[in-house]
């Protein structure tokens, strides 16, 4: 049975704890954590009267703006190649439904890809992500994994890549992306390149899209949820390589969501045209995410965890293997006391929440080995509980030192250091 998405379920659990007065440092949810830019809010408000159903693929001004957005990123695009949907998540589901074959995923990868594959009755072919590959499958293992999957009777047809990546927060380098694309083409795979964090790459311009390498077999998805922090507005777009696939996708969309909310599409057209206020807002957000996630990275490393270096977005994927078997670590003493043991990722996430009041997601939620002691943390909900705090964070030149952010990072450092046995002390 498919249960509620781990991200949404954990978020609701933490919100319930907080509502009961339990102070939880919430690092479990991938919401961008920023206020709404006033110019974007004004664009939405001005379109409130647009209450008619619209074209399934999206209103013409949105499709044109999205085409321009991709053009500016080196991907020449006609408006007819764009389909908009109520978030990129349903677009991904619809794409997985119209593209033939089973789904090849990096292990770990974002929670919903595998869940959507399973909803569609498709099998998942997991391929490990080695340290330093930026969250995409190891090119050396991808080919053999595809051959082995076929030998087991599977039909690998779709490879999903996330650039920059969620959950690892890393970004694959150009040579890795090229190598993976070459193998995908050799094996006849279509690639879905999920580029929802593209504009939050810590070094702007550092993302190489598979659509630049194998354009005829790449679909790119993105949306407004991350760089412009409009997750609840539910608007995503995808860029398709050819007309027949576009027509099939529109067919599915027409039977499920009819069209994305029209006033939100008007605001999205404004966003994707990237006028100066939007560019300034996205740049400020990127600066904030980068500063805080890097501070969190240094915090967990200093506290004895392993962790891939962040390359984009606001996630980290620490590895607390050092906490296992460490006689001086509090985790082990706890485990010895309860007899339960720190058996894997779920135990670790539970311990972090119950003992340290820090909410994270276990690596197993992303398809990772449940015995590993890895978890994903998001720094984006640390920016503030009020819009005033969030604007202050956005405008700060050193946001990691704002008291409410610094305090949360210190709590994280103390907890990780206790678990790894690295002790206390000034970790930041
Ligand atoms: C990798 C990735 N893809 C897609 C999405 C879905 O975004 P939305 O449906 O809000 O566009 C998310 C959201 O967390 C994500 O992290």
From TrEMBL:
Extent of the signal sequence: none
Domain Aminotransferase class I/classII large: 36-378
PROSITE patterns: AA_TRANSFER_CLASS_1
Cofactor: pyridoxal 5'-phosphate
TM helices/strands, residue ranges: none
UniProt xrefs under CDD domains: AAT_like (cd00609)
Pfam families, per the entry: Aminotran_1_2
Top-level taxonomic group: Bacteria
Molecular function in Gene Ontology: pyridoxal phosphate binding; transaminase activity
Keywords: Aminotransferase, Pyridoxal phosphate, Transferase
GO BP: amino acid metabolic process
InterPro entries noted in UniProt: Aminotransferase_I/II_large, AspAT/PAT-like, NHTrfase_class1_PyrdxlP-BS, PyrdxlP-dep_Trfase, PyrdxlP-dep_Trfase_major, PyrdxlP-dep_Trfase_small
E.C. number(s) listed in UniProt: 2.6.1.-
Family per similarity comment: Belongs to the class-I pyridoxal-phosphate-dependent aminotransferase family.
Protein's recorded name: Aminotransferase
Organism encoding this protein: Crossiella cryophila
């Amino acid at each position: 049975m498919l249960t509620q998405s781990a991200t949404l379920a954990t978020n609701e659990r933490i919100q319930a704890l907080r509502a009961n007065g339990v102070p939880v440092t919430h690092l479990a949810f991938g919401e961008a954590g920023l206020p709404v830019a006033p110019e974007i809010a004004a664009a939405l408000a001005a379109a409130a009267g647009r209450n008619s159903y619209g074209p399934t693929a999206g209103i013409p001004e949105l499709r044109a703006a999205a085409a321009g957005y991709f053009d500016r990123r080196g991907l020449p695009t006609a408006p007819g190649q764009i389909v908009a949907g109520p978030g990129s998540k349903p677009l991904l589901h619809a794409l997985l439904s119209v593209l033939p074959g089973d789904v090849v995923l990096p292990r770990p990868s974002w929670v919903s890809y595998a869940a959507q594959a399973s909803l569609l009755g498709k099998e998942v072919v997991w391929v490990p992500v080695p340290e330093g590959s930026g969250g995409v499958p190891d090119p050396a293992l991808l080919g053999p994994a595809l051959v082995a999957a076929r030998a087991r009777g599977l039909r690998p047809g779709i490879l999903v890549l996330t650039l920059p990546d969620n959950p690892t927060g890393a970004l694959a380098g150009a040579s890795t992306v090229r190598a993976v694309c070459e193998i995908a083409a050799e094996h006849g795979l279509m690639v879905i390149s999920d580029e929802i964090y593209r504009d939050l790459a810590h070094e702007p311009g550092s993302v190489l899209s598979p659509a630049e390498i194998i354009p005829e077999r790449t679909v790119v998805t993105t949306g407004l949820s991350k760089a412009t922090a409009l997750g609840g507005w539910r608007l995503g777009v995808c860029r398709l390589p050819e007309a027949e696939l576009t027509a099939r996708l529109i067919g599915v969309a027409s039977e499920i969501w009819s069209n994305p909310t029209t006033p939100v599409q008007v605001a999205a057209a404004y966003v994707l045209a990237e006028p100066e206020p939007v560019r300034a807002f996205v740049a400020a957000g990127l600066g904030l995410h980068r500063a805080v996630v890097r501070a969190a990275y240094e915090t967990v490393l200093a506290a004895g965890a392993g962790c891939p270096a962040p390359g984009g977005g606001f996630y980290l994927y620490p590895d607390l293997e050092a906490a296992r078997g460490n006689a001086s670590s509090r985790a082990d003493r706890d485990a010895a006391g309860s007899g339960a043991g720190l058996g894997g990722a779920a135990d670790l996430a539970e311990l972090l929440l119950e003992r340290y009041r820090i909410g994270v997601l276990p690596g197993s939620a992303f398809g990772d080995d449940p015995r590993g002691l890895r978890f994903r943390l998001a720094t984006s909900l640390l920016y503030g509980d009020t819009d005033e705090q969030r604007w202050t964070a956005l405008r700060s030149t050193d946001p990691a030192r704002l008291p409410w952010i610094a305090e949360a990072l210190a709590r994280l450092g103390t907890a990780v250091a206790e678990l790894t046995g690295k002790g206390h002390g000034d970790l930041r």
